[in-house]
Amino acid sequence: MGYLSGFFSRNWTLKLSAFGIALLLWVAVRAEAPNRQELTGVPVRVELADPQWALVGDPTPTTVTVRFGGPSRELIRLALERPTVVIPLEEVMSGDTVVLLRNAWVRLQDRPGVIAEDIQPSSVRLTLEPVERADLPPAPRWEGDLPDHLAFTALPVIEPPLVRISGPRSRLLPIDSIPLRPVDLSQVTGSGRIIVEVDTSLFPGLEIQPTSLEAEVVVEDRVERMISGIPVVLPEGIGADGGFQLRPATGAVLISGARSAVERADPTTFRLVLEVEAGGLPPAGDEAAFPIRLAGLPPLLEAEVRIDGAILRNTAEGTP
């Protein structure tokens, strides 16, 4: 019995070993055996080489189904890599173009023995437009304020003054300027040049040159100046026939800004104008209070009017 037991034990070991080897051989053969697999949702892209045309929108349809042939193990890996179909469009003959897809246009990683056998649908439609070009002014965007001790002597100048944009005609028509990325004025420490980038995220599919510009910023120390004796007046064309009195007759204004601009400000050009319309004048013998505004302030200067308003009296005698 011992001999028979050992005999069967040895046979079972041999049989299990033989079965394992056979299974490995079968798996290896199956992995190398030709097989087929369909992948859906394979994206279609276009490589357009004709500089006179631009693609408008995506191909129709945007994805296709591709049937591949090759070893099973390579096909399994292929499904994880997601190949693409790339159309090499060298020359455009029409804005509405139908392209027959070729198996050779399927791009995938190096997978020995794997080939594209069929593509469905077999064609896609492309919509193209002639490329147009335009030179447009940049549109700077300023955020925040200069530090309290600084003020502009002139508005920042952007160089170059024009930006070249090119793309499909329909995309260019509504564009009249090129927005730049915001510049935080609170970070300005003195005069100089600042690099400003075009906000290219607003123009997908369009070509812009240059994408980096320079803003020349000129600032000076901020100073203040009190100007008194500024006349209080009625708006032009109102009360021209006389018969009105204003009190006070003059007022004071505190102006502030860059030193050079404040020093050359001419007080004789300033007026404190009553904010009143012809229909709002007080009746004869009566008076009313009105707010005032400063007129004649030069650009880039700020002002604080030191009186709240003025009293307008109609000196004409009332009806008895």
Structure notes:
There is one protein chain. The chain is of the alpha+beta class. The strands form seven sheets. Strands 11, 19, 21, 22, 24 and 25 form a six-stranded mixed beta sheet that branches. The termini are far apart. Helix content is 16%, strand content 45%. Mean pLDDT is 87; it is low at 25-33. It has four domains: 1-32; 35-130, RNA Polymerase Alpha Subunit, Chain A, domain 2; 137-217, YbbR-like domain (RNA Polymerase Alpha Subunit, Chain A, domain 2, Beta Complex), CATH 2.170.120.40; 222-314, RNA Polymerase Alpha Subunit, Chain A, domain 2 (Beta Complex). It contains four helices and 26 strands. It has helices at residues 2-32, 72-81, 169-172, 259-264, and strands at 34-48, 53-55, 63-71, 84-89, 96-100, 106-107, 115-120, 123-136, 138-139, 142-143, 150-152, 157-159, 163-168, 178-179, 183-184, 192-197, 207-209, 212-217, 219-233, 244-247, 250-258, 271-274, 287-290, 292-295, 302-305, 310-314.
